[in-house]
Amino acid sequence: MTNSGGMFPDAVFIIWWTGLILTLVVFVPLAIYSLNRTWLAARSIQRYAAEALQAAAGIAGNTANIVALDTTINVATQILGNAGNVAAKLDTVANVLEQRAEK
Fold first, then answer.
1. Distance in angstroms (rounded) separating the CA atoms of residues 5 and 33
2. Is the whole model's pTM more than 0.70, yes or no?
3. CB burial readout 78-96, b (16+ within 10 A) else e
4. How many Cα atoms within 13 Å fall on the side-chain side of residue 28?
5. Are 21 and 37 in contact (CB under 8 A)?
6. What is the CA radius of gyration of the chain?
C-alpha cells in the first residue's frame, strides 16, 4: 500500500481500504440481517393472508343464503296479504250463510 510516485497520497489508500473493510465487516452483514428480517416478515404476512382468505371464504359461504332468506321474507309477506284477503272473503261467506240460516 505504498504510493510509488502515483497521483494519490497514502492517506487516500488507507481511507479506501478502511472503507472497504468497514463495508465488508459492518454493512454487508447488516444488509443480510435486514433482508432476512424482511423475508421473515413477508412469510408471516403470507401466512396471515392465507388464514384471512380461509376466514373470508367461510364468511362468504355462511352468508350466501341471505339472498334466499330475503326472497322467502318477500314471498311470506305476499302470502300473508293473500291470507288476509281469503280470511275477509271467508268472513263474508260465513256472514251470508249465517243470514240465510236465520231466515
1. 42
2. no
3. eeeeeeeeeeeeeeeeeee
4. 7
5. no
6. 43
Q: Is the dihedral of CA 14, 17, 21, 23 positive or negative?
A: positive
Residue corresponding to grid cell 384471512? 52
Let me know: does 3 contact 9? Beta carbons within 8 Å: yes
Per-residue pLDDT of the chain (103 residues; tens, 9 = 90+): 455 557 888 999 999 999 999 999 999 999 999 999 999 999 999 999 999 999 999 998 888 888 888 999 999 999 999 999 999 999 999 999 988 888 7
